[in-house]
Amino acid sequence: MKRTINKNVFFLAAMLSTTFLSCEKGLEEETFSVLDANTLSLPANGEQAVRGTYAALKDNGGYGYYAGYLYWLYEYPGEVVTTRANARQGVQLDQLTYDANNSTINDVWTSIYRLVSRANESEEIIKKINYKENGSSEALQKQHLGEVRFLRALAYFDATSLWGSVPLLNKPSSEFTEADENPPLTDQADIEAAMIADLQYAEANLPESYPGSEVARATAGAAKSLLGRLYMRRLEWKKAADKLAEVMGKGYDLRTPAEGGIVSLFSRDNRSDNEFIFVLKSSNETSAYGVNSNSFGQNSTPWDFNRGWGNFPLHLSFYSIFNPEDSRRNLLTGVYNTIYGQVVAVPKEYGGIGEEADRDTTLAIFVYNLKYPHTGNYNYSGYNNVPIIRYADVLLMRAEALNELNGINQESLDLINQIRSRSGLQNYSLIDFSSKDALRDAIFEERNKEFFMEGRRRDDLIRWGLAASGGSNPLLKFKEKVVPALKNPSTYSDAVNYALFPYPQKEIQSNTSLDPSINNGRVK
Amino acid sequence: MLVKDTVYAGIFYQFLLVSYVYKICKVIVVKKWKSIFWLLLLVAALGIAGFLFNEKIQDVFGHLKVKHIELVKLPSNRLRFEVNVTASQTCDAVLQYWVAGSSDTLYTEVSTSKQIHKLVITNTAAKTEYQFRVRVKNKRGNAISKQYPLETQPIYQATPYFTLEISDSSISGELKDQYFITQILSEPGSIVIIDNKGEIVWYEPFLKGVKVSHWTKDKTILAIVGPEKIPSSGGDEIIEMGLDGKIITHLKKGEGDMDKLVHHEVRKDRDGNIYALTFTKKIADLSSVNGLKQDTLNGDGIVLFNKAGKKIWEWSVLDHLDPLNDPEILKHKKDWVHGNAVFRLENGNFLISFRDLNQVWLVENNTGRVIWKLGEKGDFKLDEKLIFSAQHYIHPTQDQHYMLLDNGERNRISRAMIFSLDTNSRVANPVNIVSLPEEYYTSAKGSAALFGNRQDMVLFCLTDPRAFLITDMKGKILWKVQVGGDPYRLEAISGFSPKNPGF
């Protein structure tokens, strides 16, 4: 009996305890999880994506994209800026002898698509992040999207300015099909439609300004200005005039003479002026070279001036077009003391002081721009602003658009006069112009003096030609201005459309959708 | 460790409780009613103990199970995936995977004698849907997990394109499960493994270029990595890595014993030492030919590192050539003779190929002495038609013959050549010569090796025409992959895809 009870109790206890045990079966299910470190899920990741996209503006630093090479393509072919004789790629661009193998053309192409690609990847990352549920706001998400879409539109603006029709690839690599790996050319109009969509999104979702520490970011004003610039290029004067008007009264203004005027605008101490609507910012830290600097400081001035490399000489004839009262002329090296103690001066026949400067004056062969001042310490890390859009451009573009729409008109003159009086010049009045054409010419001459070495000349010459020919001849003014500046005028060929650069040979070789014949008419 | 401790504690606790129950049962007759209270208390205690330790107890005493699978996707590589597997007990584990809808099953390497395993999927194509499951096994049984999906992303970084253009049905059997290793020289570079359709199934990207890559007998990959600005397929790093991405050896110029740049070739010898070609320099008096009294000659050498990266042997061609014998030494001194391949034989001696001499040398390991020179003006009688030029990839065949790619600078015909050497009578006899059509001429780089189970075909890498070929011994093209960039070398590899371990 005793044994039986013992046994029973034992079994009872064991059974009860196993009942408890078997309740726990749920814990033993096989479980599966995915750790995807590719997935960026926080608003901070969105911010990183945006910054990475901005960084593509200078590509890998040094000379990349807006840090240098882009402005080679925009300035060298024009009649103002020339090259040093031994810079082969530059000379080809300057003397219109380039072909599809020109490495600068290839570099800019690659940089542009690197920016497009970063913008596409960033757009996807930002879209997938839930900002609201992660302690941020939908407004910031939209701002981030607006910023990358603005940058993408800027890249396509350059691409279409330089090549016309180019591949349009507005999706992240995760959505690439086989065909996307060899994208064909897309009609320029379709690309511009995509740019307009990007810029309209950006202007609607970007703030008007940023706190001081984030001053280089794209604003709604930047998006509107770029949209205005695009409408100008498309000769859509009404849309351009209206869009540019939206930038006015939004806190931007011209740097006044009392503040030091145009010369002080380009001082290195004046990096956040509200005349700058969108610029490439760079750092002055020694380690920034090749990462976060630009090449303009080092390259703008000559060695005997401040140990620069003198890669952007300007023809003396350009100096001569300035009124001596024009303070913009002070952004050129009219006369300077060399580091060796000589004096270099622009000869008298070009409006300089020539031998009057000193007994031992060396007469200048070129002038150099001072828009990218550089301290003469052989510092590669140029940290000048590289202007991309500034308020003076907005004013002059609107003046031009209104003239194209309405002919000579007071508002156009008022806008131009803001620019002129800031630089110490007489105002224009209605009686100064006999026709719309005359005012147009005056506006482009004004633009030339205002924006030299700011990457605008090539687009301006083309738009000038188009406007003056009723939209039919983009090279009308280009040929008129550039041929006399060529070392050998017979280099210029009417069989070549200089408004479109050749597609880079490397791209044609690696992209199976492209054929060498696409460069017919683009190179000699 | 923690898990184990908890399990042991649980077992110990259960044991204590059960023995306590037994003691109580002994006295229960005497104090019947009082003991009911104790009994209930005991049941509650057992229940709580079970609640706490049940899972561990089941793990230890129950059936082997897969408890958790974690698939890890890392941004650094889109074709390589880690899968962390937690089993209920110590066991061996392997992962099976297959393209959704296909019956060809692939396996990872087996991970042995662990409860938590890291399995690495190393053989996938981009933009493909896979299914996978985990199999575990120990002495007490085996188990299979559920199936899970794995979708690979497109790869676009550092990878060129390979396009299959010809694949003759006669070799489909030989090509089954055949993989090839090649490399991207330009920056950013990449080591690449492709399957028989030219599909990339494994890659490892580098910011620098990958100058040459080699599949070792240990199923690892050796590569020379360096910036594009180092010419002659040169690099400043030697990397040995596993398919799982783990770096096994990493030698850098300027660190440890690696004091020279390496170029063109990196391999392992029988004992696992790593050898490579190096750039060497020597000061020589060239004043008699209008050079400097102390002029610098740049030539090639061989370096041998042991597994720990210690330099154990070195050799320089500059100790074995008289510069004044070269009438154009001032022109050649910057890259004299241009070594481009080295191979260490079983007996320890080295074969080395010099492009600009049109010669292959055998170098004695112990003494550094040059045993013989094969080729133009060499030690072997060679029919005029058999003189090779700008050759690459000297290596022995299984039959102890010597094989190379004759780039054919002389008449612009590239060919694979196999020689048997009669070292006594000093005659080089052709065993096989496989000439390619003119359009496959490559002026530089490239490789040729026997291919197939019967070693009756030739695998070519041809740089100028950007082609990988397999031909029969008459030169008929049986397989061709067109390459999007300039390939340097192609090797057929074995053991890339682990076999079914059978559990």
Automatic annotation (TrEMBL), chain A:
Top-level taxonomic group: Bacteria
Domain (SusD-like N-terminal) ranges: 91-232
Matching Pfam families: SusD-like_3 (PF14322), SusD_RagB (PF07980)
CDD domains linked: SusD
Gene3D superfamilies attached to this UniProt entry: 1.25.40.390
Keywords: Cell outer membrane, Membrane, Signal
Domain RagB/SusD intervals: 366-514
Membrane-crossing segments per the record: none
Principal location listed in the UniProt entry: membrane
Localization in the cell: Cell outer membrane
Annotated InterPro entries: SusD-like_N (IPR033985), SusD_RagB_dom (IPR012944), TPR-like_helical_dom_sf (IPR011990)
Family the entry assigns: Belongs to the SusD family.
Protein name: RagB/SusD family nutrient uptake outer membrane protein
Species assigned in the record: Flavihumibacter stibioxidans
From TrEMBL, chain B:
Highest taxon of the lineage: Bacteria
Keywords in alphabetical order: Membrane, Transmembrane, Transmembrane helix
InterPro entries in the cross-refs: Arylsulfate_ST (IPR053143), Arylsulfotransferase_bact (IPR010262), FN3_dom (IPR003961), FN3_sf (IPR036116), Ig-like_fold (IPR013783)
Transmembrane segments: 6-24, 36-53
Listed name of the protein: Arylsulfotransferase (ASST)
Species whose genome carries this gene: Flavihumibacter stibioxidans
Species classification: Bacteria, Pseudomonadati, Bacteroidota, Chitinophagia, Chitinophagales
